[in-house]
Amino acid sequence: MAIAVSLQRYFERKGIVYKTHPHVRENSLSKLCFELGIDPAHVAVPVLLQSARKAYLMAVLPLSSGLDMNRVEALLRREFTWLDDYAVSQRFLDVEPDAEPPIPEPYDLPCIVDRSLMDVERVFFRAGTHSSLASVDADTFQRPIYAGNAVQT
Questions:
Q1: 124 touches 85 (CB < 8 A)
Q2: Chunked in runs of 10, what are the mean pLDDT values of the chain (153 residues)?
Q3: How far apart are CA 126 and CA 130, in angstroms?
Q4: Entry pTM
Q5: How many CB atoms lie within 10 A of CB 50?
């Protein structure tokens, strides 16, 4: 499996052009970036959150950054907690653990996106497996994937 089935179907349905980057199985995304020469600021990762009302939210940020939960809560005016591994696995049934793609629509999730990801030429991300990355160009990342589906932070 190069990418998750849900993600592949979504890309096909939307006509999104993407590249896959097969590699030796590696669980550490940081180590993989080092080995492949990819700037961690160009790698989008999802963080799954849940509000007090049990609503889910995907925060998408560069691997090189951490999530500022206080900022997210202030921006959206609600409190959030991180989803545990079991809850995440239940949202991403066709994905290997810790290889969740930062693409919200195939998984029916609202999202917020770190604005710095909009400034990179090509965005890399896990696409459901620990043996392949996927990437899209900046225009694809900004428009078809997140258009109307995200709040930029």
A1: no
A2: 89 92 88 93 96 92 94 92 92 93 92 90 94 91 64 54
A3: 7
A4: 0.90
A5: 16
